[in-house]
Write a structure and sequence with these properties.
- Helices cover 83% and strands 1% of the residues.
- The chain is mainly alpha-helical and 316 residues long.
- It has a single domain, classed as Up-down Bundle (Rhopdopsin 7-helix transmembrane proteins).
- It has a two-stranded antiparallel ribbon.
- Helix 2 runs antiparallel to helix 3, helix 8 packs antiparallel against helix 10 and helix 8 runs antiparallel to helix 11.
- The longest helix is centred in the first third of the chain and has 44 residues.
- The radius of gyration is 22 Å and the shape is globular.
- The N terminus is likely disordered.
- GO terms for molecular function: G protein-coupled receptor activity.
């Protein structure tokens, strides 16, 4: 009786089942994330908040939804159905790769804008230009971010389907490693660091200058409300760091070392888990908002109450 062979077969079967569970978990995360982002949109539209802040809160929810639709559904199909959407054609290979990285950039960079806006408002409470930031300014910032994202991800227009392997491929392994490292720097390390410093600085500033701010800074005149917005931004930034780091580490290990050839199945499952964690970052923000902000919870409860009233009146 070959014990090692049977053990290997059992291990492979366990990993296969675990991968299937992870794949279906991805789909669940996509569904609850889309529902949560819809509630963020509905809740944010109803809130009395600066138009500049409201624009980027809405943009964040939309970017998160696109991240769930593109890489989220791709991971589900790849794991459960063993079919990579990116390999269907050259156009899908280029389009899917470019859009995935672009919306991921937006999702991370918007947090910088929101936290920096709060910090500057606290630091310079009497600055008229900061108080008068409008929809035009928000759209201008978005256009700049789009231009930077386009330049950063322009390389994906060179992606092609390899004729031998029929796999969506971009350059060589060194180029892919460079892209992964750049993404880790510009989508994880820099945003998380800036958001952390800006948010903590804003909270300290509110506590130090509460009397001066309360009479001159309308958007955060209610210190409790202002602090809750900052806690929301801080919570999703910390969660973003925790859930994104494993995926970047796994990708770097795969592209730098030969460990995949020795522990391919185990590393593949680790990659699946890292992808699920990464998707949860864009899926659970609504629930993090509710957990970290009392005012957001109140507005959500009011929203549900109004929906019930309107739905009841329609039935009658």
């Amino acid at each position: 009786m070959n014990i090692s062979k049977n053990s290997s077969t059992i291990d492979f079967e366990i990993l296969r089942i675990l991968r299937q569970v992870t794949g279906w978990t991805d789909l669940v995360l996509v569904m609850i994330g889309l529902v949560g982002n819809f509630f963020i949109l509905a809740n944010t539209i109803r809130r009395k908040v600066r138009i500049f802040t409201k624009f980027f809160l809405i943009s964040e929810a939309m970017s998160d939804s696109l991240v769930l639709v593109f890489p989220g559904i791709r991971y589900f199909v790849l794991i459960v159905l063993n079919d990579d959407i990116q390999n269907d054609s050259n156009f899908i290979c280029i389009f899917h790769s470019f859009v995935t990285y672009l919306v991921t950039d937006f999702s991370a960079w918007i947090l910088i804008i929101l936290s920096l806006e709060r910090y500057l408002l606290v630091k310079f409470p009497f600055n008229k230009r900061l108080k008068d930031l409008s929809l035009f300014h928000a759209i201008s910032f978005s256009c700049v971010m789009f231009a930077l994202g386009f330049l950063k991800n322009f390389i994906f227009f060179t992606a092609v389907i390899d004729p031998d392997t029929e796999v969506c491929f971009l350059g060589n392994m060194k180029l892919q490693l460079l892209i992964t490292v750049l993404d880790m720097i510009f989508n994880l390390i820099i945003p998380s660091t800036l958001v952390l410093f800006c948010t903590i600085g804003s909270i300290i500033g509110i506590k130090r200058h509460i009397l001066k701010i309360s009479s001159n800074l309308k958007p955060i005149s209610d210190t409790n409300y202002g602090s809750q917005i900052l806690r929301m931004i801080l919570a999703i930034s910390v969660y973003h760091l925790i859930t994104s780091l494993p995926l970047f580490c796994v990708l770097i290990i795969i592209k730098v070392t030969d460990v995949f050839y020795f522990y391919g199945d185990q590393l593949l499952y680790t990659f699946d888990l890292a992808c699920a964690l990464y998707i949860s970052n864009n899926s659970l923000k609504f629930y993090l908002y509710c957990f970290s902000s009392k005012s957001f919870r109140k507005m959500f409860i009011l929203l549900i109450h109004d929906v019930k009233i309107k739905f009841g009146s329609l039935i009658k």
